[in-house]
Design goal:
The chain is 7% helix and 31% strand. The protein has 229 residues and is mainly β. The protein has one domain: UDP N-Acetylglucosamine Acyltransferase, domain 1 (3 Solenoid), CATH 2.160.10. The strands form 5 sheets. An 8-stranded parallel sheet has the order 2-5-8-11-14-17-22-25, with no helix packed on it. An 8-stranded parallel sheet has the order 3-6-9-12-15-20-23-26, covered by helices on one side. It has a 5-stranded parallel sheet with strand order 1-4-7-10-13, with no helix packed on it. The model has no long low-confidence stretch (mean pLDDT 95).
Length: 229
């Protein structure tokens, strides 16, 4: 199997395609992220604010974006046009958010890239990850970015473990992929375009495009009987 950026992402759906130019693997874009933001950030803030927020000095906010009460954007960050940064969202260092994205209530983003139309709407953690065009996370989804042993993260490609060179690497979530509520995606996972993970799944590894992962844990249904008094 090949694993190049255009396999996962429509590169026309980001203003930051230079991050992916010439990379061997898509996760290598994360290695460039901090330097790229430092070189390209223009701290112009054209957004609208609702209530009290905290927005750092090194933050760029596009026209039509709304930042709601309680949101904290530490920066450095580049946030596009027409986004919703909802109540109590927390955007840490080195974040790029495309146009028409949603970062929702009590969500945390750190060292990540969101393509246009990506949605991180409810109680999500996105660390050291890339979300493709119109990728969507259900409520409570966690993109875990650190192994328990704190060592480098490997990706298994056709049976060969490839060292990413990253100690922190969450997931690559392809265009229009859907991850169901309360799922956990383990470090170094790659989800193909249009793939679906059902709710409450703990996933690790590469999921090809347009595949579905279902949680088949048995559910028992019994008759409800009154308790003795």
């Amino acid at each position: 199997m090949t694993l190049i950026s255009s396999d996962l992402f429509d590169l026309s759906q980001t203003d930051h395609v230079a991050l992916f130019d010439g990379v061997e693997y898509p996760w290598d874009a994360l290695k460039r992220l901090a330097t790229y933001i430092q070189e390209n950030l223009r701290p112009i803030q054209l957004h609208r604010t609702i209530g009290r927020t905290h927005i750092g000095e090194n933050v760029q906010l596009g026209e039509g974006t709304v930042v709601e009460e309680g949101a904290m954007i530490l920066g450095p960050a580049i946030i596009g046009r027409g986004c919703q940064i909802r109540h109590n969202a927390y955007l840490r260092e080195n974040v790029i958010v495309g146009d028409n994205c949603v970062v929702g209530n009590s969500c945390e983003l750190k060292h990540s890239i969101l393509f246009n139309g990506a949605q991180v709407p409810h109680f999500n953690y996105v660390g050291d990850s890339v979300l493709g065009y119109r990728a969507h996370l259900g409520a409570g989804v966690v993109l875990s970015n650190v192994k328990l042993d704190r060592k480098n993260i490997f990706v298994d490609i056709d049976g060969t473990p490839v060292d990413t060179g990253l100690r922190k690497f969450g997931a690559l979530v392809g265009d229009e992929a859907e991850i169901g509520c309360n799922s956990v995606v383990n470090p170094g996972s790659i989800l193909g375009r249009g793939s679906v993970i059902y709710p409450n799944v703990c996933w690790r590894g590469i999921l090809p495009r347009h595949m579905v992962v279902k949680n088949v844990a048995p559910i028992e249904v019994v008759t409800r009987r009154p308790r003795a008094t």
